[in-house]
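To close the chapter, one final illustration. This time we ask the reader to focus less on the individual chains and more on the assembly as a whole: which components sit near each other, and how the overall shape emerges from the parts.
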Amino acid sequence: MSSTTNYILGVYDDEDEVLHAVGEVKAKGIKVEDVYSPFPIHGLDVAVGHERTRLPIAAFMFGTLGMICAFSLISYTMVFDWPMIIGGKDFFALPNWIPIAFEGTVLFTAFGLVSTFCISNDLWPGNKTLPLDIRTTDDKFVMAINLDKNKVSADDIKKALKESGAIEVNVK
Amino acid sequence: MAGHSHFSPANVEEHFEFNSEGKKRIIYAFIAGVVALVIGIYLLSKGEAGGHEVAAAGHEAAKAGHEAAAEHLSGGAVSHQPEAEEHYNWMNRVWANVWLNAVFFTGIAVVGMFFVSLQYLTKSGWSSVMKRVPEAFPKFLYISLPILILTFFFKGDVIFHWMHHGVTEVGSANYDKIIAGKSGYLNKNFFLIRLVVFGGLWILLWNMLRKKSLEEDLNGGTEYFTQLVKIGTAFIVIFGASSSIFAWDWVMSIDTHWFSTMFGWYMFSSWHVTTYAVIVLTILFLKDKGLMGYVNENHLHDLGKFMFAFSIFWTYVWFEQFLLIYYANLPEETIYFLERWEGYDKLYKSSEILMVILNFLLPFLVLMTRDAKRTRIFLKIAAFLIIAGHYIDFYQMIMPGVVGKHGGYGLVEFGMVTVFASAFIYVISGELTKASLVAKNHPFLPEALHHDI
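The assembled structure is written out below.
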């Protein structure tokens, strides 16, 4: 969040109210940037209108990559670099490869997904992004509206937030 | 909170009507199955080549290649059922089919009970909207368990190597030292005791659960829930033991010399995922009738995840069993897969490959995305694939050991599965009409109605 953006923040003290308020505010033609909450609220992402996460696609790609890497590693070591006979099987003993390919898939998917999630949410170590309102880490719910992305005037937005049940409206 | 619809039991109770139109259709299917079965049996009696091209080809080639295959198969300590080859009766394949379908549908019926018990044991909320569907399945045990008992009692020697005449008598031409060593467990009386005791416990506990569940509809109150949790827990303890025991008894002991410590899990996982597929199909059928509107895509998504996950679980268990045997390469263990892969002139090889495609590859790809698990047509496709695939799985478990080179896919197989499936559908439909499709006083019902994932 760069400090040059203008935000209007509606603060709510009930999760049902904020979920309901999102619909009311949006019905007035105001674009809601995001809602901050101490815990996940069912149906909130749909109400705000967030696109579904594309993490599953990343998961599939990391998994495929992991499978290929593990398969290549075991094939290279066991067939080309240092061929070994184990249990009287062929050098290229496909069934024996499968557990390794599976483990590689899982490992790459897990590490890859956690990294992707953290990077896409600005959660790398040492990052000191502060929440728009520190109370969203405790018991308050904040609806953030980006003034630059809205054509509605600031006063109308403040009024709409108040009407929808906000206990206070701040500008940041 | 105005956003939540007001919940009252009166507006969720609804009943499925098994009308004469539906009954007629299922009876026609049953008759068609019987006709196919009779024609199939007639063709078998005229000579086994009548069943199917596969069987015919297998027979032709078997003449030439049999000696080599037999030598190959019995390379280890095992000589597999040599006496069965000499006086083979064409009716064996019919009895093998009865056994196959009885085991398959018993599994679907009992896992319905297992599913409901599991939901109670874990105190799950989401499933309370659809628990009446699996709860009706165990009714079929009243038909399939007697079939198992009667088939075992009268035709057990056709199906089980260890019941062949004289295998445990010292001095008999059929004497088999390995089987004689197992006769403390594998004998007719003990087998029947296990079947009757555990089968009886299944039916008893299901009746208790069903009765309490229906009383809860009338009276309400959380004390029913507490009692149902106890019944469910008791069933899971019993089922944990009995599912493995029946896997050894009903299927693994067909290949009496062979054994696998994974087998209990393997057969259970096959039953389990098939039952999810049947649950999904039943719910989608009811939804197509305009019923169960409160079962929305969130609940279907959960069921789809179960089908997806347990298809992978089945693959894991099946492959693990194969991998350990492949790796260790002990002759008395590898014979099982040799029979199914190269034995009987590769008669069972194509269905072994088809089974892995149907049970793993296709459900894995079809159900992978979130949208597919929330879309009815994809769920239906996946459910049909899984049911067909696991029928073939059981076919692969039972047929090679019972009929060997005389197996195949023909009218007998098709007719028998149609007969059993239509009987199953008839019984389950009848049982579904006996209660409201939603357990209206289930304490977690409001939670389930607001299920959102």
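Chain A has a mean pLDDT of 89. Chain A touches chain B at residues 16, 19-20, 42-43, 52, 56, 60, 87-88, 95-96, 98-99 (CB under 8 Å). With these observations in hand, you are ready for the problems at the end of the chapter.
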